[in-house]
Amino acid sequence: MFFILSKILSFLISPTIILLGMLIISLLSKVPSIRKRFLMIAIGLLLLFSNPFIINQLLNVWELKAETTSPKSYDAVIILGGFMSADKTNNSYSFGEGADRLTEGLILYKRGFVKKIILSGGSGSLVDDTRESVLAKAFLVDNCGVPDSVVLIDTASRNTYENAVESKKIMKTANLKTAVMITSAWHMRRALGCFETVGMNVDIHPTDRLYNKPPHTLDDFIIPNTNNIIKWEILMHEIAGIIMYKIRGYN
């Protein structure tokens, strides 16, 4: 039930859904003043959500940064899922924008900074039960020269909190003491909170930041860009996740 409720909350606070809601009310209302008011609200929100400068400043505050720029050695790297799926049409792999999670973990292993790779990610979908960690392990072993024994997988977790729970179990079973955790920078705040809640002390290695470094151009201040609506979607999804996790004591 909690899993479904978190999905519903994320849907309801989606900027796209909010904009559509305002427009639908504007179109369906028979009262001219209400129609005009909601249309103006929709236009105002569209300008807000598509403005590059505003979302960029918010992301700079929201996204966590690496604790150190000098690599350390760890028993394991924990890579949280959400970066790939199965391309069933071509019988291959399909990587998303979060693929840096996997490549950064692979780089740490190849450079000798970690001994084991823990892939944490079952199925976070309501309709697809494909286990992402199984796919990711197959990719690393079959295509990247990583020994099968190096890659440990969690196939049970469906959300970030369960990532932390299952990763802790794997660490204990394999007698691993130290770890660095990898996920997207915009997701790291919620992820780190979950790992701390279950009593895991991990260093963090954020990847694929959404924040764009200055200097800013005039375009950043005045020209709307629909790509920024996607960034708002991601940010609001994370806020919804943290709210639900706070309620459940996960964060």
TrEMBL record:
<dbReference type="GO" id="GO:0043164">
    <property type="term" value="P:Gram-negative-bacterium-type cell wall biogenesis"/>
</dbReference>
<keyword id="KW-1133">Transmembrane helix</keyword>
<feature type="domain" description="DUF218">
    <location>
        <begin position="75"/>
        <end position="241"/>
    </location>
</feature>
<dbReference type="Pfam" id="PF02698">
    <property type="entry name" value="DUF218"/>
</dbReference>
<dbReference type="InterPro" id="IPR051599">
    <property type="entry name" value="Cell_Envelope_Assoc"/>
</dbReference>
<feature type="transmembrane region" description="Helical">
    <location>
        <begin position="38"/>
        <end position="55"/>
    </location>
</feature>
<dbReference type="GO" id="GO:0000270">
    <property type="term" value="P:peptidoglycan metabolic process"/>
</dbReference>
<protein>
    <submittedName>
        <fullName>Uncharacterized SAM-binding protein YcdF, DUF218 family</fullName>
    </submittedName>
</protein>
<feature type="transmembrane region" description="Helical">
    <location>
        <begin position="12"/>
        <end position="31"/>
    </location>
</feature>
<dbReference type="InterPro" id="IPR003848">
    <property type="entry name" value="DUF218"/>
</dbReference>
<dbReference type="GO" id="GO:0005886">
    <property type="term" value="C:plasma membrane"/>
</dbReference>
<dbReference type="InterPro" id="IPR014729">
    <property type="entry name" value="Rossmann-like_a/b/a_fold"/>
</dbReference>
<keyword id="KW-0472">Membrane</keyword>
<keyword id="KW-0812">Transmembrane</keyword>
